[in-house]
Amino acid sequence: MNSPLLQLLVLAGIAIFLILRLKNVLGTRDGFEGPASSKPPVSNRPSREFEVIEGGPDYDITDHVEEGSDEAKALAEMKRIEPSFSVTEFLAGARSAYEMIVMGYERGDLDAIKPFLAEDIYESFVEGVAAREDQGLTIEADFIGVRELKLMDATFDKDTQEAELTIRFTGELTSEVRNAEGEVVEGSKNEVKRQKDTWSFARKMGSDDPNWLLVSTDG
Question: How much is the pTM?
């Protein structure tokens, strides 16, 4: 056997030996793995990323009211009775409800907003719209947006499971009031009016009806 062929066979044999040695040491691993642990695996030990820390703050509550406050305790009770309740989602809905109710009253379209009003609030709205119509006044309004929204108070009655949330709104709109002759007697479509309202919404937690009712309107 000539020398070059012998050298080639020796090199091939060394390569095969090294491959087998590496395979025995490394095994067959796919993808990314961390360093091997000196401790044997424990199959029933929960992964740390799924551990739940009991007693930790509920940021859905503490993002809106002070931790440990009466309001925070009331909100926690609401969520205990109705786990799907979210303070953040409620406030987003309240923002939309504010625009819908304000514009419904301004335009005199009370049928559209009646399902969201307590009976006494609805009656006061009816009286306000009727008085306006008796004077021959009409309103042309456009809602611009809610500049500020803040949860001011939260109460919960454990006996009745009635929840009440009070919110301060600062809305911006344009409003123009015209008399029977079509003359502008108040406001201007070119002037943005900032309107502040403090409203309270109530609902029985755990009930099938998801609607919160407007029960108080303090300007």
Answer: 0.72
Q: Give, in order, the Cα–Cα distances in Å from 209 to each of 94, 98, 157, 213.
A: 16, 19, 18, 11
The predicted-structure confidence for 189-208, as pLDDT tens digits, reads as follows 899 999 999 999 999 999 99
Gap between the terminal Cα atoms of the chain: 107
Q: How many CB atoms lie within 10 A of CB 141?
A: 17
Q: Please give the biggest Cα pair distance in the chain.
A: 121
How far is residue 59's CA from residue 200's CA, in Å, rounded to a whole number?
22
Q: Rg of the chain over CA atoms, in angstroms? A: 34
Could you tell me the two tokens for 91?
Answer: 């406030």
Strands in the chain per DSSP E: 138-157, 162-178, 184-204, 213-218
Sorted by sequence, the CB contacts under 8 Å of residue 4 that are 6+ apart come out as none
* Domains defined for the chain, CATH in brackets: 57-218 (3.10.450.240)
Decide if 178 contacts 81 (C-beta within 8 A). no
∠ CA 165-168-174, rounded to 5°: 135
Residue burial 189-200, b: 16+ Cβ < 10 Å; e: rest: eeeeeeeeeebb
